[in-house]
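Our example pasted here:


***
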Amino acid sequence: MRNKLIVFAGMGAVATLTLTGCGEYLAAADVEASIEQDLTEEYSEDEFDVECDGDIDAEVGEQMTCELEWEDDMTETVEVTILEVDEDTSEVEFGFEVTHVDGEPITE
């Protein structure tokens, strides 16, 4: 199972979402869907589930934590960070990366 971690952690993935409504935060559900979409390029949707701990303010540097649970019960902690906010287009760029596996920090 370690190969999942290496591929995902190595991506240091970046995604962009468009704010809706008041435009002051990204909804956890939107962040989850974006991470899931990225992962389905590499893995089957049935292999994992992503849950984030709440909405995140759309401000550069803000962070949130998500849990990535694989079908084999391995859990990875995913840290999400807001990288850029374009107020003209309401687009928010964020990066995400695996930081822990089954509660243990990743060290390189």
User: Anything to note?
Assistant: The chain has one domain: 2-102.
